[in-house]
Write a structure and sequence with these properties.
elongated; mainly alpha; single chain; 4 helices
Length: 64
């Protein structure tokens, strides 16, 4: 079986506005890391909801 033992999953509040959450929480380093964008303007870091994470894991063949 394929098991993913390391997953980052954040509450919906953070998923909706990672930079805003970081500013309110006083986390400038987290904001700098998670707020980076690619040359095309898309974010480098994705923040999936639980359903998205599980669907992606299923598509990749990860069993647990």
């Amino acid at each position: 079986p394929v098991i993913d033992s390391h997953v980052h999953l954040y509450p919906s509040e953070i998923n909706r506005d990672p930079a805003g959450w970081a500013a309110r929480a006083g986390e400038p380093h987290w904001a700098r890391l998670c707020g980076r964008q690619r040359a095309d303007g898309l974010p480098v870091q994705a923040f999936p909801e639980v359903a998205d994470l599980l669907r992606t894991m299923d598509e990749a063949g990860i069993e647990r």
